């Protein structure tokens, strides 16, 4: 962004001659305030044109702060929040307690948080939960204390938990069907279903099962391991004469 220097500062620059001054003038015209300050301090140390260097050094912070705050505002309006914050920090480098710079920095953080919260809402509406979480984390990066962002994150996580639970229930239900189909293919007459609101119990009705089949099933580590991985908590085997065997998977 091109920025015109204050008139008083221009006149002072025009009055300066000599290499260090020319370097400082060039740096100021390019809005390179750090470099300008460096060369003006060098001139001051050499005691050459001390008064002129002092005058420029006094005016330089005003010009730097004005320039970087203008840069911060432009970047904020264009949703370039990191660049806007960087500009604020550069303004504070020249005047670390500048109220306008501090206020601008707060405004940038607020604008950034609001921008990413809106993105999170849109992603949530589009059912893109992973991207919604990423967006709300961006909002919290700018304003860790933002209550709206925290509520949004909680809402997204609850939605994700509910979806994960529904998917897990569907997988357990599907596994019961697949297991029944597998056993029938082996000419073993079974009926396999799930029980519980979250389908965490596997119920196997195997009319011909005796203690032998029950013992074998209880010792089948790959089978039981698969059930645990799917989130099953209990297995009920109903066998000959309606005899029942019940296993809590976290205890075997």
Q: Which labels suit this protein?
A:
alpha+beta, 2 domains, four-stranded mixed beta sheet, 4 strands
Task: Provide a descriptive summary of the structure in words.
By secondary structure, the protein is of the alpha+beta class. The chain has two domains: 7-145, no CATH class; 171-251. 69% of the residues lie in helices and 8% in strands. It has a four-stranded mixed β-sheet with strand order 1-2-3-4, with helices on one face. A hairpin with a 5-residue loop joins β1 (191-195) and β2. α1 crosses α4 (50-77). Residues 1-5 and 10-17 have low confidence and may be disordered.
Topology readout:
Layout (H helix, E strand, L loop, with lengths): L6 H9 L3 H11 L3 H13 L4 H28 L3 H14 L4 H27 L3 H14 L4 H39 L5 E5 L5 E5 L5 H8 L2 H10 L3 E5 L5 E5 L4
Parallel strand pairs: 2-3
Antiparallel strand pairs: 1-2, 3-4
Helix pairs in contact: 1-4, 2-3, 3-4, 4-5, 4-6, 5-6, 6-7, 6-8, 7-8
């Amino acid at each position: 962004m091109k920025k015109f220097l204050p008139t008083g500062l221009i006149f002072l620059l025009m009055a300066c001659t000599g290499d260090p001054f020319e370097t400082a003038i060039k740096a100021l015209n390019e809005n390179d305030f750090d470099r300008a300050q460096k060369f003006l301090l060098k001139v001051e140390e050499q005691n050459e044109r001390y008064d002129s260097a002092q005058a420029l050094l006094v005016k330089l912070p005003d010009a730097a702060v004005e320039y970087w705050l203008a840069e911060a505002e432009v970047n904020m309006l264009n949703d370039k929040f990191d660049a806007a914050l960087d500009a604020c920090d550069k303004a504070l480098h020249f005047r670390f307690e500048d109220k306008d710079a501090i206020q601008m920095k707060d405004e940038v953080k607020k604008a950034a948080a609001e921008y990413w919260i809106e993105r999170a809402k849109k992603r949530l509406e589009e059912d893109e939960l992973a991207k919604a979480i990423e967006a709300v984390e961006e909002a919290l990066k700018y304003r860790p204390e933002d209550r709206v962002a925290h509520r949004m994150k909680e809402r997204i996580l609850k939605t994700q938990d509910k979806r994960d639970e529904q998917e897990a229930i569907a997988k357990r239900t599907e596994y019961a069907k697949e297991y029944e189909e597998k056993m029938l293919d082996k000419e073993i007459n079974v009926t396999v279903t799930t029980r519980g609101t979250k389908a965490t119990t596997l119920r196997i009705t195997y009319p011909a099962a005796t203690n032998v089949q029950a013992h074998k099933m209880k010792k089948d580590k790959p089978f039981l391991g698969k059930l645990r991985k799917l989130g099953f908590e209990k297995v009920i085997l109903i066998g000959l004469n309606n005899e029942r065997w019940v296993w809590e998977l976290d205890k075997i």
